Amino acid sequence: xxxxxxxxxxxxxxxxxxxxxxxxxxxxxxxxxxxxxxxxxxxxxxxxxxxxxxxxxxxxxxxxxxxxxxxxxxxxxxxxxxxxxxxxxxxxxxxxxxxxxxxxxxxxxxxxxxxxxxxxxxxxxxxxxxxxxxxxxxxxxxxxxxxxxxxxxxxxxxxxxxxxxxxxxxxxxxxxxxxxxxxxxxxxxxxxxxxxxxxxxxxxxxxxxxxxxxxxxxxxxxxxxxxxxxxxxxxxxxxxxxxxxxxxxxxxxxxxxxxxxx
Length: 262
Fold this sequence. Notes:
This protein is of the alpha/beta class. The protein is built from twelve helices and eight strands. It has helices at about 10-20, 35-45, 50-55, 70-80, 95-100, 135-145, 160-170, 170-185, 190-215, 215-225, 230-240, 245-260; strands at about 1-5, 30, 50, 60-65, 85-90, 110-115, 125-130, 150-155. The protein has an eight-stranded mixed beta sheet. The radius of gyration is 21 Å and the shape is elongated.
């Protein structure tokens, strides 16, 4: 059984993604400090509602989807009943694996996971870092368990702040771009819904092209950009106004905030 501790927005996204990805709902459980919230999620997705210790005793993996300050108290209750082979996946933002390990029995494998919200629809990104007792077998098991949620990338733990800035916050950057593309289309006279659909299709199509071809983004951009054409005019404005520099500065700011515990 996979037990999700924490029924907030990310906890629900994970539960929804696992169910929609084909995981047996009977082998998924949710636990939240609000029993009412846990009941709601369990009913919504066909999962089980469990108390903390009850769920831990039967878990092959536990997902800690709670604020970092809540982790010590949670682990104090469940650590004594966790199976020796239970995989602990920590999604507590910014919390090093070492701090989780100290609250568990010696040798318990811990994998730090940073997902983004697109896991809800199976198109997310999970960035994984193994703790001291998590080798490649445990990383592979984490990828197997989380596979329905989207793509997986392993990085050294010291790179988690950069990964948070890029992958964790990444969807928001694209929502921002789509928002402004659609606004520009509407200002040019397009129906707002049509402008939105065109903008969403442009973003999803670009991503699909990158996945399918494996090409460099600059190469694909050059294919669309005929010298003196419409895309060339648009690219000139983006370069003139420093759009690329602004994006890179935004990612650096997010990484700095992550490193400071924000």
